[in-house]
Amino acid sequence: MGKKSKKKQKASGSAEQTDGQPGDATSLKPKMKTKDYEVELFKLQVELVKLQEWVKAAGARIVVIFEGRDAAGKGGIIKRIMERVSPRVFRLVALPSPTERQKSQLYAQRYIEQLPAGGEIVIFDRSWYNRAGVEHVMGFCARDEYDKFLKSCPVFEGWLVSSGIILLKYWLDVSEEVQHKRFVARIEDPTKRWKLSPMDLESHRRWYDYSRARDAMLSATDIPAAPWRLVPSDDKKRARLNCIADILSRIPYKEIPYKPPQLPPRQKAKGYKEPKQKHQVVAQRW
Hints:
Blueprint: H1 3-16, H2 34-58, E1 61-68, H3 74-82, E2 90-93, H4 100-103, H5 109-112, E3 120-125, H6 134-137, H7 143-162, E4 166-173, H8 176-188, H9 198-205, H10 207-221, E5 228-232, H11 236-250
Helix pairs in contact: 2-11, 3-11
């Protein structure tokens, strides 16, 4: 191989590694073309629609939990899952801070209220794992409450699975460098500033506190009935495709045969005439 080729290969290799974490599988891959990404995403979204029809027909109950650091890409994956399906079947749960009344309840109570009935898929954008993450790191819960959670959570999730719920848990794994870049982008982009809260700023500062909390959480709650699955998320496009594909692979759904309906003919006007509308019409700017 000539000097020119070696230089070209070296330059290409260094450019590819910026997409993911060092040593991560995605770090060795070139940036994915938007067109290729959209083609693959559409295929997966078609499968999500098939899954939806099966869930309704089978009366299945599915829970998908998304956890990860701030700016790890949870919202992006959830948005692509929800894009082409019915919100009556795929229900997103992103609970705010608990009220004073909820603080006096059993910790899991407000999450149990959100669990699916037959024919539903519930997606948790953060979940009961708040106790093992932000509540623990920021001191919003006592040490004994945190310890009790780590011990009781596997029992609780085992009960969910034994009750017939399909429980899938995903941790989106973002690198320190990429999280920093995404935070900076949120500051600079007026359409993303709302995503950056004081809690996000604190999570940026306390990177290693959150790392320790993550390690302890994954170790204590990775059980055979409900294992954690890590999603490398420095490369957003690949993270979305890989995660959705994994969800589909974990659920034993079958395609429900589709019978196209016949559109009935429109009724006759029987003298009806469209009146001239007197109501305001939005300005036609385009």
